Amino acid sequence: MRRCLICLAGFGLLATFTRAETLTIQTGDTAVQSATARANASKTSVDATVTKDKVQFDKLLPGERYDVSLQTPTGQQLRLLDVSWYADLAPEPADPMDDDDRAAINEILSGIKAFTNKNTILQLAGDSQHAVAIVELIRDTDFHARSGDEIIWRIEVWYFENQAGGWAKVQQQNRVIERERFKSAEEFEARRKKIQWIGIASGLKITRGENATIGLPKK
Q1: 202: which residues sit within 8 A by CB, 6+ positions away?
Q2: In terms of DSSP H, where are the helices of the chain?
Q3: Which of 83, 26, 107 is nearest to 204 (CA)?
Q4: pLDDT in tens, 9-39
Q5: What is the distance of C-alpha 145 from the center of its chain?
Q6: Where are the alpha helices (DSSP H) in 150-195?
């Protein structure tokens, strides 16, 4: 009997450490054909159960941050990216981000000397102290080993922090979402126009013991 109790206790510990939470995305009138969530840290992927007005992921790992790809019947992709801060923050009062904050962050981006020649913020989220940006990086001019009209394209998530009254990019925390090389501008635009990037500030980080529900932004 004692041996059985020890076995059951061990099973209970295993169940605790392997518990997985769910994420539900309410899609409303947006038709979704398939959906996949990819974990930022472990790089594992989970497919969703898709119904008429929602998709549900059932085996997500607590503590992970996920990015989600929704495929529509028309071939469009809705890419939901986690734009919460890269580390847990102690709650502190902060003012909303204003136009001066946005201008300062855009100035940082334009002032960075990089391999890419076109750098654009697609979406910016946060407050007056911390900001997270979805950034598009393009190189469509000549570069070493370029063949013909090749274009290099990247989508990344960048983090910015207001330090001592001035904004600065947080180094070594970039998340690369997409990195592709195209043979021509036509091939590039055909791929690019099929994707809509959507930053989600809360809900894609999975909390132990909690199931998350988020909705798609209104069109």
Answers
A1: 84, 214
A2: 2-17, 99-111, 185-192
A3: 83
A4: 332 332 333 456 999 999 999 999 999 999 9
A5: 31
A6: 185-192
Start-to-end Cα distance in the chain: 61
Contact 193, 4 (CB under 8 A): no
Residue 6 dihedral angles phi and psi, to the nearest 5°: -65, -40
| Whole-number Å distance between alpha carbons of 151 and 213 | 38
| Residues sharing a CB contact under 8 Å with residue 29, sequence separation 6 or more, in sequence order | 53
Two tokens at 13?
């510990």
Alpha carbons 76 and 191: distance in angstroms, whole number? 10
Say if CB 165 and CB 101 are below 8 A apart.
no
The answer to whether residues 188 and 163 touch, using CB atoms and an 8 Å cutoff, is no
CA dihedral 100, 177, 38, 87 (to 10 degrees): -40
Name the pTM for this structure.
Answer: 0.86
3-class secondary structure, 113: coil
Residues 60/21, Cβ–Cβ less than 8 Å: yes
Contact of 168 with 161, CB cutoff 8 Å: yes
3-state secondary structure at position 192: helix
Q: What angle do CA 41, 193, 201 make, to 5 degrees?
A: 40
